[in-house]
Amino acid sequence: MIVQFRIIRLKGIMSKGGYFFRLFLLIFTMDFLVPVSSMSQDINFSMFKLNPIFLNPANTGNFYGNWRFAANYRNQWAATSAFTTASASMDKRFKIAGQSFAAGVIFLNDEAGVGGVSYNKLYGSLTYSNHFGKNYFYIGIQGGFVTGSVNNWYNWNSSTGDFSSPNGEENFGENTSYFDLNAGVVWKRKVHIFEPEIGFALSHINTPGNSFLSGTEEKEAIKYTMHIDILTHLSDQVYASPAFAYFGREGASLTLAGSDVGYKFTGNRTAVRTVYGGVYLRNGIFANIDALNFLIGSEIGRLKIGLSYDVNISDLGKSSGNNLGAFEVGIQYRIVGVVLNSYSIPCERY
After folding, report:
1. Distance separating alpha carbons of residues 33 and 248, to the nearest angstrom
2. How much helix, strand and coil, in percent to the nearest 5, is found in the chain?
3. Are strands 272-282 and 40-42 parallel, antiparallel or unpaired?
4. 111 and 156 Cβ atoms separated by less than 8 Å
5. Which residues on neighbouring strands pair with residue 4, listed in sequence order?
6. Among 295, 229, 232, 301, residue whose Cα is nearest residue 265
7. Which CATH superfamily is domain 2-335 in?
8. Which of 14, 83, 251, 332 has the fewest CB atoms below 10 angstroms from its CB?
9. pTM for the whole thing?
10. Cα(75)–Cα(11) distance, rounded to whole angstroms?
């Protein structure tokens, strides 16, 4: 999650009392991207591989099968119920005039318990795919609507430092909505034991206005996403999948770097097809280290399940004395049927 606040826009709220200043400081330094440009929040998942359509619109249809369903949930700073994020998506591949396309839809809900900030996002995606020799390309576009609400700011009491007893602070607006536009590309191929995949995406291309404050022209900053995944078949049963993701906007950035290692079960003795685990470093390349992400998962039939936990190792976590980690769960289910896209790499990705 990226949370951004423009201090001077909070009018009289911040000038009264030290409680709000400490609360603001905590939110302002909370996770990883903190440019002070607008009152908005962007979403990120540590298990980015299990939320492909959100990661890059060009990932719509980038899978083995006909249909794919996915769901993700992230609970950050669970001890304080501060931030929860959920998403659900589905995509389908099809052909028109012999050309390969895919369409998908994704819904996201992002809740910040402190202050009652809530965002709902609904996007539709369309992707075209083709291949040139052994190189496979996906080009995708994604558009949708975002609605946001702030339910509790008018209850803020700067004297007591809570939201339960209002003291007449000015309400600066409870709702916002805007159209959002994203796009991306993905390239992949198979080279001996390697299956590299590289993607690049732009989010908020239209820089929509996102402010809760009337009469302001705050804009959603463009976010740049680059991701690399190199599936490596170490043997018939063992594989590794080192990956890197970069998210950047307005001079700030988040990086995720690490690897999954998994084991594939052969034969029909069990419905479990794979088990895997991995470790990822959040930041530490272009910014101070934020957290270590540990994950485990399994693929059972066409169902893939992943669980992860972020262990906060930043100075914020050390100084607060609280559990500022984040728990995530992600699932995917694929319906294979007749594979319509002849451009897919025939070996399934794990």
Report:
1. 8
2. 10, 50, 35
3. unpaired
4. no
5. 40
6. 301
7. monomeric porin ompg (2.40.160.40)
8. 251
9. 0.79
10. 31
State the Cα–Cα distance between residues 222 and 181, nearest whole angstrom: 10
Tell me if 225 sits within 8 A of 10, measured CB to CB.
Answer: no
The pLDDT profile of the chain, 350 residues, written as one tens digit per residue, is 333 333 223 333 333 334 333 333 333 333 333 333 333 456 789 999 999 999 999 999 999 999 999 999 999 876 555 789 999 999 999 999 999 999 999 999 998 766 668 899 999 999 999 999 999 999 999 999 999 887 655 554 445 545 454 444 454 556 889 999 999 999 999 999 999 999 999 999 999 987 766 656 678 899 999 999 999 999 999 999 999 999 998 878 899 999 999 999 987 677 899 999 999 999 867 777 889 999 999 999 999 999 999 998 876 555 445 556 889 999 999 998 754 544 445 454 43
Token pair 């369903």: residue: 69
Phi, psi of 109, rounded to the nearest 5 degrees: -125, 130
> What are the residues facing 331 on neighbouring strands?
71, 305
Angstrom distance (rounded) from CA 218 to CA 209: 5
Q: Write the single-letter amino acid at 129.
A: S
Angle at Cα 233 formed by Cα 284 and Cα 57, nearest 5°? 60
Per-position DSSP letters for 60-110, written without gaps between them = TT-SSSSEEEEEEEEEESGGGT-EEEEEEEEEEEEEETTEEEEEEEEEEEE
Domain boundaries, the chain: 2-335
Angle at CA 220, nearest 5°, toward 214 and 224? 175
